[in-house]
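Hello, quick one for you while I still have it in my head. I'm working through a protein record and want to make sense of it properly. Would you mind checking whether the tokens look sensible for this chain? I owe you a coffee for this, so here goes:
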Amino acid sequence: MPNYPSIILMSSVTKLVNEYCIIKTSIKNPVNIFRNITRHVAVTVALMCCVGVAQGRTMWERFVEPEDSTRTKVWWFHGETETTSEGIDADLAAFKDKGVGGVVFYDQVHGKCEGAFDSMSPEWWDMLRHAAVRARDLGLSFEVAASNGYVAGGPWITKEMGMKKTAYVDTIADVGADGVLRVDLSGVPEGFRDVATVMWRDDDASAPLTVLSGTVNVGRDRNDTISFEFPEGFVARGMTYFTGPRGKGSTSSMNIPGQPRERYFAALYQEYPPVGRLEVSDDGINWTQATVMPPIESVIGHKIRTRTVSFPAASGRYGRVVLADGSPGNAGQLRVGDIRLYPYDVIDNVEVMTGLRTEVTYPSVTGADHGAVRHEDVTDVSASLSPEGELSVSVMPGRWRVMRFGYVPTGARTKHGRKNALGYEADVMSAEAAKMQFDNYFKAIADSLSAVGASPSGMCMDSHEAGVQNWTAGFEDVFRSRRGYGLTQWLPVFAGYIVDGRDRSMSVLADFRRTVAETIADNFYGTLTRLCHDYGVTFTSQAMLNIDNDNIRSRGQVDKPQGEFWAYQKDGNYDVLDAASSAHLYGHPIASGEAFTDTPYSATWEELLRIANLAYCRGINEMAVCASSYQPWADRKYDDAASAHPYVFHRFHPRWDSSRTFWDYQARCAGMMREGRPSVDLCVYLGDELPGKTMAYRLPDIPGDYTFDVATSDALLNRFSPSSDGRIDVKGGMSYKALLVEDRAVVSREAEEALRRLEESGVPVIRCRLGDDTGAMLAERGVRPSLAGVAPLQYARRTLPEEGTDVYILYNHSNESVNVTPIAEYSVRSAELWHPVALTRTPLSLPMSITLAPYEAQFLITHRDARQH
């Protein structure tokens, strides 16, 4: 198999061939074609430099004196203060002096911004050009963020070009003997754009029972009861209500390691109790619980605050909703409102199923299919809708449900940037919006810097935290093209109606969410990557939070998939695993990490490197530190006490003078983690559920001697193939020994077929359940770890098969010394330990015995017969 530099080179050759084909078939603009070829080569050269192609030095020499390309970059935050050439020069000189490799220019602000220039004002441009030229002269890399502030938008993004969500008007119409249905559907939200208007016959249709209109504040540690009575009785099968969000961090990227369990957990996540319950009674004395009312989880960005609950039919003459706030004392006031009951069955938690909210869901009793409609009975009457929203159509007498379906702007806006350049977030399902953002921000900057001979080398996009989006203009055509059927007759599911049975409705909604994720990956990440390549720069990007996106696939589209880890996460997190997995699965040599976010001044360099070692052991091989707040003066520090988030990696840090070892250590580790190609034992299939990312509570309990990546369905369906020796080969050069299907994975029919084909070809496919002994199942299938006997150490492996060399980072993440006796899967001829701080090179006797001090990391270098691969 080729190593990663070879992959990059072949990728570049492919692009050059494609450009040649363009030239051969249509010589319309040979100058532009030549420019594109040149830019593709520039991107290739940049990535080849990152992995140390043709460096001409031994691995030990590169270890002792790391290449500049391996050195950590800092996110250089501007906008909280005035900008001076004096401050720029001092900041960049300090970075260079201590061993920082470059900067990512990022207008991000959390303070009062006193004296700050407007974005793209003449003074701003002068200082930006000065910074880029100075960085070039010092030999520092210079990259630029994708936007002013979080994360991809600005004044040039109109509401029409901004993020969008579905909306509808739903009503009941009675048609008399004249056979004419007339209904006013004009009551749509601002900015509404039509997709289709549909109707279907439902002679039993009835409006929901309103229990509470408006909202109430729920008292802590007491019950607030809303009672109602219907002398002739009622039946309830569904319920909707409003509640403010509870909990924190539910589906953010901060998923932390831990043992598999029944319920979700994550960094800062706190599971809150139900906000209430519905009870029914025939006599007003004896009560039966019909359903509980789960809280809505608190997630970052825009989301809908309505929740739908489906439950088995509950009937009675009396009813009551008992509200109770049993939340922890630090929780804010609980508000509940707009409570309605439905006599027909509904889709449970339809807001999550349609991508209007993202949170963890668990299996539940959801009811039957009473009141379901057949899809063939749903009629498209869009042509009969007037521009004013009046529908008039001839139909059979009876009762009809009518639904006007469309989409509206979410109103999501950028934040934490210079105020004059804030605006709407770009539509993340639109290639046109992606290009508009690129052209108006990054390209404008790159053109200006190119004019002074200081072109940026890359564009970097932070984690996307603007909330949900589940529609874009023309999405109905995209859905039909990708899924092979249209959505029009299935639109009632978006209002919670069951169409052709609950299972079929859920299948359609799964197809819908999958298409949303594919559109984001292709139209947003894919377009920005193409634009960067056309411009000759690399694209580094993080994931999307709280939106139905496949974060493994999306990051796989970019040059440098990036994860993030925060200073408070003393035991690391799995977002870096997701980023490294994206790099491995999609053939990218660099897996980047936003490092040490929200570090306080009190943290020591040694404490931070412990977390960095965890990221290296997950496969990260580039660090970009978050962050350094720009310092405008040479003689005094900017007073960041007024900033919500001081960013401490700057020249006035109280321990800055001692930081050289800190920066050198990272360069040394990143360089070693780029040698050869990655070697990972196992791949864990996460299933089809969205957002596509690692959720620790469902991961198999994998023994510590094994290393693993994670994958979603795109890789399973489009990048995996069985090898002749029972392994999984991945396009781009990666290989795995076995595929584990995680506990409670949602697996589509297509994915099940792909799993079956792998199994029939001899690949170990192991389906894991909570409590399974995964180690025993792997041993039973003959799957051995790359390095046995190293637990409880953490490690990652790089291999140079042509040279018969393997590189392992070994890390003891504990406060006690650990001795291990590693056994490599290949016969070892010789081995050494390389120390990244002491720069010692210690030969090991065979069999190997290694002792690591508390929180110590060393590199194990083993040599074998080059034919053993």
